[in-house]
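Quiz preparation item.
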């Protein structure tokens, strides 16, 4: 038994020498990994030597065990040191082969931005929010009844010619031509409370596409209903809005007009700086630019929304943010808005 233990002790000594000698000639990381498997893998030699502890006679087991563990520690330490050295050599070699210039400027991160249409909508929301208006969204696919009839345009009313639309395959279901049908939705939901909302959203018209007209465009509708709402409130609200958006020095002009759902109806113009080189072209020589249609809500529409015209009155307005943006930024073709040309969009 003593002989076996002694032999095993000398095996440990030769195992250590052999392992260290092989480690010394490992040239790179893969070679080191192979060495590690040979000695420390599941069937590795060091692992086997440790497993052998149990088979050593009791009186020698302690000495053998201590020696086996010392060899294990020594080899582990030697392996880790050699591995760290190999990694550092590999890193240095790659840095020398592909030098890294830390003084080079970084690659700029491409930053996105909001579409110009979104920017102007947010500007409009914020101006009206300051005046106590809520944003109310309604559907883009509407019934003929909502888009026309309840807004005081029965079938065959000549005013329908102003708003030719897209029809769906379901009779009486159309794409809305303006945000005004939203007025009926709001009134029916809010009745009998007072109302102060804006209704933004996409509208659709079946008309020739030109530099000023698209078949798809945004509108922002406004609706105020209360018990003593007058034309003075309409004029004050719109003037405050126009000056916030275009500049405090702007003059605002109200012209009489016609919409079936308002009475009286008006159109709103702002003056255009005469020193602007585009002034003549934009204003057709008049010095004034139209920004929206508006008026006092027609009694028929109030009634259709559930409000008694003897008790309630209100005003409404509707504007086209694309046309307004064209004025603000001297954009000469409305088709740019949905054309997805980054050269155009990046300017804003
Ligand atoms: C209307 O649509 C009315 N519903 C506005 C209104 C609301 C009046 C409430 C009174 C009370 P109009 O058809 O003029 O009106 O359109 C309003 C705005 O939408 C226009 O001034 C214009 O800025 C914009 N717009 C109309 N058609 C187009 C189009 N094809 N392309 C781009 N913008 C358009």
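Solution:
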């Amino acid at each position: 038994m003593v002989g076996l233990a002694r032999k095993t002790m000398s095996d440990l000594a030769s195992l250590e020498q052999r392992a260290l000698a092989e480690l010394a000639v490992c040239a790179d990381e893969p070679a080191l990994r192979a060495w590690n498997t040979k000695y420390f893998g599941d069937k590795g030699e060091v692992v086997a030597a440790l497993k052998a502890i149990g088979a050593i006679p009791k009186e020698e087991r302690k000495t053998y065990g201590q020696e086996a563990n010392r060899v294990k520690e020594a080899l582990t330490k030697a392996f880790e040191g050699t591995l760290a050295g190999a990694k550092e050599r590999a890193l240095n070699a790659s840095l020398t082969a592909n030098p890294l210039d830390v003084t080079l400027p970084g690659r700029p991160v491409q930053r996105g931005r909001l579409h110009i249409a979104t920017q102007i909508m947010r500007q409009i929301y914020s101006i009206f929010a300051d005046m106590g208006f809520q944003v109310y969204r309604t559907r883009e696919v509407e019934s003929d009844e909502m888009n026309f009839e309840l807004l005081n345009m029965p079938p065959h009313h000549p005013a329908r010619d102003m708003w030719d639309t897209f029809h769906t395959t379901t009779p009486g279901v159309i794409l809305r031509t303006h945000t005004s049908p939203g007025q009926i939705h709001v009134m029916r939901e809010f009745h009998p409370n007072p109302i102060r909302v804006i209704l933004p959203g996409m509208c659709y018209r079946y008309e020739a596409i030109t530099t000023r007209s698209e078949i798809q465009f945004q509108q922002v509708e406004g609706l105020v209903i209360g018990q003593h709402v007058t034309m003075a409130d309409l004029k004050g609200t719109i003037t405050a809005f126009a000056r916030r958006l275009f500049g405090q020095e702007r003059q605002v002009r109200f012209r009489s007009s016609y919409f079936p759902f308002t009475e009286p109806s008006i159109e709103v113009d702002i003056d255009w700086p005469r020193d602007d080189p585009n002034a003549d072209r934009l204003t057709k020589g008049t010095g004034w630019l139209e920004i929206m249609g508006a008026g006092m809500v027609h009694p028929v529409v109030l009634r259709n929304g559930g409000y008694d015209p003897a008790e309630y009155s209100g005003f409404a307005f509707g504007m086209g943010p694309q046309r307004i943006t064209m004025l603000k930024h001297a954009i000469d073709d409305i088709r740019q808005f949905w054309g997805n040309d980054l050269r155009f969009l990046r300017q804003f």
